[in-house]
Amino acid sequence: MTGARGPLLAALAVVVAALAVYPAFGTGYGVRSMLQIFMWIALAGSWNLISGLTGYVSFGHVAFFGIGAYAGAILVTSAGWSWPVAALAGGLAAVLLALLIGYPCLRLKGPYFAIAMLGLNEVLRALVSYFEGLTGGGNGLSLPTLDATRSIYYVMGLLAAAVTAATWLIVTSRFGLRLMTIREDEIAAEAMGIDTFQHKLAAFLLSALGPGIAGALTARDQGYIEPISVFPLAVTVTMIVMVLFGGKGTVWGPVVGAVVLFVAQELVWAHYPYVHPLLFGAIIIGVVLLMPRGVLGLLQLKYRLPRTI
Amino acid sequence: MTVPLTPEMVGQVLISGVLSGALYAMVALGLALIYGVMRVINIAHGPLLMLGAYVTYFLYSRAGLNPFLSVPVAMAALFVVGLVLQRTLVFRVVDAPELSSLLLTFGISIALVNLAQNAFTSDLRSVEYITGSWLIGGLALSKPRFIAFLFATAVTGLAFLFLKKTRLGKAIRATSQSREVALVCGIDVRRIHLLTFGIASALAAGGGALLAVIVAIQPEMGGVWTFKSFLVIVLGGAGNYPGALLGGLLLGLVEQLASLFLTTQLSEVVAYVLLVVVLLIRPTGLLGGRQT
Amino acid sequence: MPILTVEGLRKSFGGVTAVHGVSLALEGGRIYGLIGPNGSGKTTLFNCITGLERCDAGRVVFKHERIDHLRPSAIARRGIGRTFQVIRVFPELTALENLLVVTRGPRAAAERRGRELLAFVKLEGLAGEYAGNLSYGQQKLVEFVRVLMTDPLLILLDEPAAGVNRTLLNDLLGAFGRLRDEGRTILLVEHDMKVVMGLCETVFVLDHGEMIAQGPPGLIQADERVIEAYFGA
User: Fold this and answer.
1) Other beta carbons within 10 Å of B8
2) Is A54 at the interface with chain C, CB within 8 A?
3) pLDDT higher at A79 or B210
């Protein structure tokens, strides 16, 4: 598809340029919304790395977002770190958590891993309420006031771009192919000499980094976090819906899913807040039954597009 | 946090463990049936339990029906719901890769929980029908839990009788052993799938109905039950229906033991750790054998 | 010096013993056959050797190293390759990617070799086709050359002739011969007796999980126990 490459890259450059200058023109609400879109792109794209490529569904991914948020917030408030560095530390904390969970759990076969990650949600819920009682953590954690929304906009945008770029690099490499074989036929992959455990673990660790950083950045931006705001199941559900809708295992699928669903959410469902989560459930059902490859996956199949879509 | 272990405590742990174990077993049996017959991992199992609890609650608060009498009502209602779910949605992923059934039932569970949140709000409800405990020796026997135990044991016993003795029950067991052979024997496998999902939903709902008297009812109460049902199956051996009994008992006992040293909230963490540990120790070759 | 020895291998599934105290030794640079009626434990034996199943008892030694406790990918990387009775190509990877994915070194060299191997089985035009779209025979060939990509010393083939047309089969048999001449060892499970008897220097016979005979094809064909296992009682 080299013929289309030139115009596509040019279009991409235009979009990036527009996004770069947007804060100068946009409203506070607009910038905040874009910031959120970037965040969802980073989250969805990261979830795609483990669940889309290897087929190992992570139902507890919000854990990494929450850990990153808390690590980042604590480092800013108690240790006086600057928020960018704290954000990186948040990512690191998430990766460490992923190692702790992934090391035992990724030895399990796909369905059992999914169940274990499902349990992680329940455990998080339990731990959250436990620590609320213990530390009075229900009052949350306040960060020193700082209006850094613009800077965070750029950093979050960079994060979204980095996650998408990383996905592109992985999908075009043999490492990515090997991840896909885990999804296709894990037994055959093992028999061909691919250490599936190491590969799953690597993908899992990579998939935790983005949410960790995003969590810390969000904590800084909101200025205040409490357990229920950074560990809700809804975050994982949203990640999943976005990737399923856009196309799991593709490069731009999570981006498409994040943009479309976030915009739809803001425009339509903000008026019907109680229906919104129900609709996500319906979308998951619909996509799984009718469009399991998602929008881009379907296009990829129909028009024989390259894997880098 | 060393707690001196008295015989009373051990006795209490045993009793409480057995009481809750029966309930775990009953609910988990439903999940085991769905997995055994259809190879579907039903993440929506917990929400079905929750709906059963709400049936009991509303029958009690609106119509004054004895909550224990509403158990069969809840079971019947959710049996129908289960049939509908299977007939419209789940049947499509029975032969699909496991990923599809996982995501589908996940979507269903989200939808069910949020339907409940919309319809019933997230306010905590409770059925204060019977409270307190009988004192036997130095041990407390919680009244609602004991009655729930009796019901759970009865229902589970009936379920096993059904599976062993009736033609339909044998057909279900045959299908879970080998669908191909069942087909050859003239069993209408699609019908079996339908009925199995209905029965499993009924079992979950029964558990929910019994729970209504014991714990607070809210839309998200089911999630932890889905997870614990899986734990029970893993403990007892997947694909092994009597194993659900053993697994349920084991889970009940371990949890009660843990609650001596930890708060009840942390006992869920115990369950989680237990799951991970058991899954790691079990020799699961990649091919895994029929069990997995 | 045998490159592979199996001693007293036993494997049961629930109440069924699939492999019952099987022992064998394979020398380098030979072609061996493994035959037996359906259900005699041939594929289970393959699975135990390659680590896909954990054997209940016995040992497997490859190149002086005991491998029966290793994970399958570690065993494969030590130089054992295999194909499957039911074809296991990666359907959403292209034919070429199926070959690339098992390699480690420089990509360009791997791609070259991949294309060469595809050309050898006359599939070079389908290199960019998703493996899932290929015909049964084509998938089988892809699976076979995929094994060769890793330069294995021992090659286990599970029914390589099934579903392959006559001309290509001859090419394949020629390839097996060349691999043998390069010093590699091939153990193949086959039901096509012409292939087995024509190609293999030694044949092992399994029945109900036990090794009932081993030796040159001529002797095996005349062995009473073998005849009984296939046709009798």
Assistant:
1) 12
2) no
3) B210
Q: How far apart are CA C158 and CA A27, in angstroms?
A: 66
Answer whether C137's CB lies under 8 Å from C168's CB: yes
CA dist., res. A90 & res. A67, Å (int): 7
Kindly identify which residue of chain A lies nearest to residue C77, measuring between CA atoms: A193
Cα angle: A279, vertex A281, A282; to 5 degrees: 60
Binned at pLDDT 50, 70 and 90, residue A134 comes out as very low
Query: Where in chain C does DSSP place strands (E)?
Result: 4-13, 16-26, 31-35, 57-62, 65-66, 80-82, 154-158, 185-189, 202-207, 210-215
Q: How far is CA C20 from CA B6, C10, C44, C225, in A?
A: 51, 5, 11, 17
pLDDT tens for C17-44 read: 889 989 999 999 999 999 988 888 899 9
A57 touches chain B (CB under 8 A): yes
Measure C154 CA to nearest chain A CA, in Å.
13
Quote the tokens at residue C218: 């001529």
Give pLDDT tens digits for B59-72: 999 988 888 899 99
Contact partners, residue B60, CB within 8 Å, separation at least 6: B66, B67, B70, B127, B129, B212
Q: Tell me what the mean pLDDT of segment A30-57 comes to.
A: 94
Distance CA B262, CA B257 (A): 9
Per-residue pLDDT of C107-148, as tens digits, reads 999 999 999 999 988 899 999 999 999 998 899 999 999 999
How close is the nearest chain B Cα to the Cα of C190, in Å? 23
Tokens encoding B58: 């509303």
Residue appearing with tokens 């910038």: A31
Question: Which amino acid belongs to residue A290?
Answer: L
B163 against A227, higher pLDDT: B163
pLDDT-derived band of residue B287, with 50, 70 and 90 as boundaries? very low
For residue A300, the chain C residue with the least C-alpha distance is C92
Tens digit of each residue's pLDDT (9 = 90 or more) over B236-250: 776 678 888 888 998
Determine how β-strand C4-13 pairs with β-strand C16-26: antiparallel
Q: Which residues of C touch B (CB under 8 A)?
A: 13-14, 47, 52-54, 72
Q: What number is the ipTM of this complex?
A: 0.90
Instruction: Assign B264 a pLDDT band (cuts: 50, 70, 90).
Output: low
Q: How many CB atoms lie within 10 A of CB A27?
A: 8
**Average pLDDT for chain C:** 90
- Residues B14-48 have pLDDT tens digits of 888 999 999 999 999 999 999 889 888 899 999 99
Q: How large is the average pLDDT for residues A54-75?
A: 90
- How far is residue B21's CA from residue B27's CA, in Å, rounded to a whole number? 10
Say what the pTM is: 0.90
User: How many C-beta neighbours within 10 Å does residue C232 have?
Assistant: 9
Residue-wise pLDDT tens digits, A43-53: 999 999 999 99
Nearest to B292 among A109, A277, A282 (CB): A109
d(CA B269, CA B141): 25
b/e map of A174-190 (b: 16 or more CB within 10 Å)? bbbbbbbbbbbbbbbbb
**C-alpha atoms less than 13 angstroms from C-alpha of A109 in its C-beta half-sphere:** 18
Residues of A in contact with C73 (CB under 8 A): 189-196
Alpha carbon distance B76, A206 (integer Å): 47
Longest dimension (CA), chain C: 57
Q: Which residues contact C166 (CB under 8 A, 6 or more apart)?
A: none
Interface size, chain A vs chain B, as Cβ–Cβ contacts under 8 Å: 120
How is the beta sheet containing C210-215 ordered, strand by strand? C80-82, C154-158, C185-189, C31-35, C202-207, C210-215
Residue B107 in contact with partner chain A when CB distance is under 8 A: yes
Say if A248 is an interface residue toward chain C (CB within 8 Å). Answer: no
Shortest CA gap B265–chain C (Å): 38
